[in-house]
């Protein structure tokens, strides 16, 4: 029932708003001028012509072909379209992402129930609708970009990995790379943590149930009485009936370790002792990785086209930007008096280590911002993107501002890691942070679209909050969505040096 509610809710706003966008902006815009003609070439049966300006593989075009083909027989029967390629209009291709947005919301709903079985159907439905409203993801639901389909493939890969269906998970991993090459990092992340979970099943005597671990952390995980009751009931049901058994919970059942080094050492020993079993179980992911390495060698790099504009760069500041953007988008978890007080008390427990950690965080952030802050030519010249104004009006408003933001970056990362640490092992948190760095740091261009997948993973693993905070955040997302849509559709402008209508967008 929850899936139907989520799908209906997303479709209720996505379909009419997609029609509005297509009526006001019927022609391809921005990156669509590359994606739409390329997809239309595929619709005409021309699979050899390739636009050298396109940087990503043709996964989105294949999905669109399958999608358009599904309603071509009906259109042909009623003489609405005599040939297949007629149906591949800009509006029809854009509607691919409307379908993908619905799929994303349903997958998020199922993932949340899988990761947090005690959350309850109603809460999972609410969270799925909230994520569907996340402004950057929501905006690109109505345009022909790769982001929404990429997120759908990554979420499907994660869901089947949690369910221990590794061949299917690896297949969706391949699909995810066909949408965006950097998704290979998330394949490694899910496979690595899946292997650790697999080891926990091989060594059940070393495990301590996560329910007991959470009980020791109760002061840091406050949930309403109703939610607590629902959670406990869900956990009892899960022990008896869940198809994932003891294997998938808010955090995998794990041994309590005194340090990260001890945890890593224990995992390494178990991996070595069970290397054959793990290699056999996770062979599908190994095949994907070998194929990806072969692709990089054949292609001469990870990017397909426009390689000169997407050179791999040590853009460490990108890592800082993500922390603040994601923390701002998850305001009720990070920027509240209770949260600040909780972190203050946490640092007060071990002042020496906490002081060293803060100083190290500030120092590394200063190095990242001062020496590894890249201003891509697209960022400086293209005033159609909101990042252009954030860069000029906030980060570069004066020479001090980029340094004044450093404490916010550090606070956001400390808060994020602390929240994740309540429900995940240290290795999981470390692997997530490294994955975010590997995805974002090589990208020279600041694009909020790149932050969507790690943001959604954060939401999946953050603690449950009350309905009031969820409602407030949902209204905030809806207000931002409305603002960006109005600016895009009804506040066009023109460039003197170039003909055509320009529009504001993420």
Automatic annotation (TrEMBL):
Domain of life from the UniProt record: Eukaryota
One Pfam assignment: DIE2_ALG10
Molecular function, one GO term: dolichyl pyrophosphate Glc2Man9GlcNAc2 alpha-1,2-glucosyltransferase activity
Keywords: Endoplasmic reticulum, Glycosyltransferase, Membrane, Signal, Transferase, Transmembrane, Transmembrane helix
Native organism: Urochloa decumbens
Biological process according to GO: dolichol-linked oligosaccharide biosynthetic process
Cleavable signal peptide: 1-23
Protein name: Dol-P-Glc:Glc(2)Man(9)GlcNAc(2)-PP-Dol alpha-1,2-glucosyltransferase
Main EC class the enzyme belongs to: transferase
Pathway membership, UniProt: Protein modification; protein glycosylation
Membrane topology according to the record: Multi-pass membrane protein
Keyword Transmembrane: yes
EC number(s) from the headed UniProt entry: 2.4.1.256
Any GO CC annotation of this UniProt entry: endoplasmic reticulum membrane
Subcellular location: Endoplasmic reticulum membrane
Role of this protein: Dol-P-Glc:Glc(2)Man(9)GlcNAc(2)-PP-Dol alpha-1,2-glucosyltransferase that operates in the biosynthetic pathway of dolichol-linked oligosaccharides, the glycan precursors employed in protein asparagine (N)-glycosylation. The assembly of dolichol-linked oligosaccharides begins on the cytosolic side of the endoplasmic reticulum membrane and finishes in its lumen. The sequential addition of sugars to dolichol pyrophosphate produces dolichol-linked oligosaccharides containing fourteen sugars, including two GlcNAcs, nine mannoses and three glucoses.
């Amino acid at each position: 029932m929850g899936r139907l509610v989520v799908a209906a809710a997303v479709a209720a706003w996505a379909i009419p708003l997609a029609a509005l966008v297509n009526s006001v902006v019927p022609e391809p815009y921005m990156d669509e001028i590359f994606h739409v003609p390329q997809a239309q070439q595929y619709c005409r049966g021309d699979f050899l012509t390739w636009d050298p300006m396109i940087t990503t593989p043709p996964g989105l075009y294949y999905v669109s072909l399958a999608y358009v083909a599904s309603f071509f027989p009906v259109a042909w029967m009623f003489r609405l379209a005599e040939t297949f390629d007629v149906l591949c209009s800009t509006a029809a291709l854009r509607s691919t992402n409307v379908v993908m947005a619905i799929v994303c919301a349903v997958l998020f709903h199922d993932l949340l129930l899988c990761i947090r079985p005690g959350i309850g159907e109603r809460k999972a439905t609410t969270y799925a609708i909230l994520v569907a409203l996340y402004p950057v993801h929501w905006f690109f639901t109505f345009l022909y970009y790769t982001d929404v389909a990429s997120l759908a493939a990554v979420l499907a890969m994660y869901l089947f990995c949690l369910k221990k269906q590794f061949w299917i998970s690896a297949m969706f991993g391949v699909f995810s790379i066909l949408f965006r090459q950097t998704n290979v990092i998330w394949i490694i992340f899910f496979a690595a943590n899946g292997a650790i979970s697999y080891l926990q099943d091989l060594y059940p005597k070393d495990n301590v149930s996560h329910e007991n671990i959470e009980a020791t952390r109760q002061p840091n995980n406050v949930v309403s009485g109703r939610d607590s009751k629902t959670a406990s009931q869900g956990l009892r049901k899960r022990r008896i009936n869940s198809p994932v058994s003891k294997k998938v919970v808010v955090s995998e059942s794990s041994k309590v370790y005194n340090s990260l080094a001890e945890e890593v050492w224990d995992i390494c020993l178990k991996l070595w002792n069970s290397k054959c079993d793990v290699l056999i179980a996770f062979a599908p992911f190994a095949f994907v990785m070998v194929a990806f390495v072969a692709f990089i060698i054949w292609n001469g790099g990870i990017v397909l086209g426009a390689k000169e504009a997407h050179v791999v760069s040590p853009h460490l500041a990108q890592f800082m930007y993500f922390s603040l953007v994601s923390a701002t988008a998850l305001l009720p978890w990070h920027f509240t008096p209770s949260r600040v007080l909780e972190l203050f008390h946490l640092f007060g427990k071990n002042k020496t280590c906490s002081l060293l950690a803060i100083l190290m965080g500030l120092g590394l952030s200063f190095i990242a911002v001062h020496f590894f802050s890249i201003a891509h030519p697209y960022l400086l010249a293209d005033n159609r993107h909101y990042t252009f104004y954030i860069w000029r009006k906030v980060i570069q408003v004066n020479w001090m501002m980029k340094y004044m933001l450093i404490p916010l970056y550090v606070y956001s990362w400390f808060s994020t890691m602390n929240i994740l640490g309540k429900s995940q092992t240290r290795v999981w948190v470390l692997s997530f942070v490294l994955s975010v760095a590997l995805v974002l740091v090589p990208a020279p261009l600041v694009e909020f679209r790149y932050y969507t997948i790690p943001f959604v993973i954060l939401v999946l693993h953050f603690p449950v909050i009350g309905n009031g905070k969820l409602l407030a955040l949902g209204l905030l997302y809806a207000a931002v969505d409305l603002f960006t849509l109005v600016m895009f559709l009804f506040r066009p402008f023109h460039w003197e040096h170039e003909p055509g209508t320009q529009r504001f967008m993420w």
